[in-house]
Design a protein that fits this description.
Elements lengths: L1 E13 L6 E3 L21 E2 L2 E2 H9 L4 E4 L23 E2 L7 E2 L5 H11 L2 E6 L6 H12 L5 H8 L10 E4 L12 H13 L16 E4 L7 H15 L9 E8 L3 H4 L8 H28 L6 E9 L18 H16 L4 E7 L9 E4 L2 E4 L1 H9 L6 E7 L3 E4 L3 E4 L1 E7 L5 E7 L6 E7 L4 E10 L17 E3 L2 E4 L2 E6 L3 E9 L2
Helix pairs in contact: 3-4, 5-6, 6-8, 8-9, 9-10
Bound molecules: alpha-L-arabinofuranose.
The site of alpha-L-arabinofuranose has 10 residues, from loops.
């Protein structure tokens, strides 16, 4: 019997809801066909946005949506995507399949989407191939309420008021597709570009007024990038760092068989199951190591680590455009999501935003579409379970199970967990069981409290169980009943290959 120890009196940090964020790029069928079908489409939509998709994402309380890329961001020129659609420039999407981008989804459409989703905006600017002026004018166009050339242009384009822009990325992957820069070169560029990302503030609008600037951080374990960028920025910003740099990004994808081969999304065996999940848990080590470097410069943890691209990246589905990165999603992905989100929760004092790549029809999506049809993936259901952590308080907790896996290198904790308390004092416990074969009986010890009542939902199934357009509900969240409360003591049995959310009311 394993023991999960929870200490309600040890509150660690707020779990910022933005940890449950998503990422949408002009890539494959994410924007076009995924979010956006246009007003004239027979697919039900509101001002071009698919109604089914908007409703599904609102249900999981999507907090923030990053756009327009990814690699696409550093080739995107925002003025191509405003004004009458017939006049918008057509361009080649050089990164993703060489297809024509007609720019029918641009700034106005993006903010309309955020509005319908009721989520925050995170726009990624073009530092790689755009000018300082272009970036500065985009921010003016979006956020300036008064009279100015760009604010006037926005009004001419049909939007009277400024939008809220809580997050702005100054370049994407500038160590790679965003310009192949060295850390020092990028950091100097960052300092220059961010100077002109003006904070016009909209005190009359709801929500955060100031723009948080996100600096391009490392790829995976590139610790030299993290220290190189911070060193160059700090040398000149020093105590004025806050406001000039609010977040440092981290990108990490799980490729079961490495970057070149990647591996099938649905056809895999036991060894690859553990390999994938151990690679998902590697996020914990990455965050610890990058956060330790950040601590040297920013011991008060003012700067957030923003994991704005994460997820499993497999070989594309057979017969699909290799440049579209379309992949299926199984119970293995539910575990990847559950494990990673538990890791993020545990690091909530440094990780204040994360964006799963990518919301619809690309990589570890929560939604897949085919024409007018839409299905929810196993990953969607995990986000549905975990949404109760959003803006909760992370509590000290631990579990005493050991590692699980095959061969020496493919190990991870058998059970991962995280626990938060919401504003009503209800505990939210999320657990993952990575074992392919074994159930885990767990005693839950809540220090100083008794459990009064509990309710749970679980996602579990065969390791490669998935939803298809023919069988859309093969994997879904089910009511969890395998728990007992006796004399205020809570215990449960967690089945193999499962992700669980249990809410627990404490005895008054
Ligand atoms: O998510 C797909 C791509 O992965 C993004 O465009 C890029 O930032 C990363 O390399």
């Amino acid at each position: 019997m394993a023991k999960l120890k929870i200490q309600p009196n040890k509150q660690i940090s707020k779990i910022h809801k933005e940890i449950y964020g998503h990422f949408s790029e002009h890539l494959g069928r994410c924007i076009y066909g995924g979010f956006f079908v246009g007003e004239d489409s027979p697919i039900p939509n509101v001002r071009g946005m698919r109604t089914d998709v908007v409703e599904a994402l609102r249900k999981i309380r999507i907090p923030v949506l990053r756009w327009p890329g990814g690699c696409f961001a550093d080739e995107y020129h925002w003025m191509d995507g405003i004004g009458p659609k017939a006049n918008r420039k057509k361009m080649i999407n050089t990164h993703w399949g060489g297809v024509t981008e007609d720019n029918s989804f641009g700034t106005h459409e993006y903010f309309e989407l955020c509005d319908q989703l009721d989520c925050e905006a995170y726009v990624n600017g073009n530092l790689g191939s755009g000018t300082v002026q272009e970036m500065s004018e985009w921010v003016e166009y979006i956020t300036f309420e008064g009279v100015s050339p760009m604010a006037n242009l926005r009004r001419e384009d049909g939007h009277e008021h400024a939008w809220n822009l809580p997050y702005f990325g100054v370049g994407n992957e500038n160590w790679g597709c965003g310009g192949n820069m060295t850390p020092e070169y990028y950091a100097n560029e960052y300092r220059r570009y961010q100077t002109y990302v003006r904070d016009y503030k909209n005190p009359d609008h709801d929500g955060p007024a100031s723009i948080q600037k996100i600096c391009c951080g490392p790829n995976v374990d590139d610790y030299e990038w993290t220290s190189g960028v911070l060193k160059t920025c700090f040398r000149h910003c020093e105590s004025r760092f806050h406001g000039n740099l609010d977040g440092l990004s981290l990108h990490y994808y799980v490729h079961p068989e490495g970057w070149q081969i990647k591996g099938s999304a649905t056809d895999f065996g036991d060894k690859v199951w553990y390999k994938t999940l151990s690679k998902a848990y590697y996020m914990d080590e990455l965050i610890r190591n990058h956060a330790a470097i950040m601590d040297e410069y920013d011991p008060e943890r003012v700067i957030s680590l923003v994991v704005d691209e994460w997820g499993a990246w497999y070989t594309v589905e057979p017969g699909t455009n290799p440049g579209f990165l379309y992949q299926q999603n199984t119970i293995r992905d539910a575990l990847v999501a559950g494990i990673t989100l538990n890791v993020f929760n545990k690091h909530a004092d440094r990780v204040r935003m994360a964006n799963l790549a990518q919301t619809i029809n690309v990589l570890q999506s929560v939604i897949l579409t085919e024409g007018a049809d839409m299905i929810l993936t196993p990953t969607y259901h995990v986000f549905d379970l975990y949404k109760e952590h959003q803006d909760g308080t992370l509590l000290e907790s631990s579990i005493d199970t050991g590692a699980i896996g095959m061969e020496t290198e493919y190990h991870l904790p058998w059970i991962t967990e995280s626990v938060s308390e919401d504003a009503d004092g209800v505990l939210h416990i999320t657990l993952t069981n990575a074992s392919l074969t074994d159930s885990c009986p767990i005693d839950v010890e809540i220090a100083g409290c008794k459990a009064a009542e509990a309710q749970g939902e679980i996602v579990c199934g065969a390791m490669n169980a998935k939803n298809t357009f023919e069988e859309p509900e093969c994997v879904k969240a089910e009511k969890f009943t395998d728990y007992r409360i006796e004399n205020g003591n809570l215990s449960l049995t967690l089945p193999p290959r499962s992700v669980l959310h249990l809410s627990v009311k404490k005895d008054a």
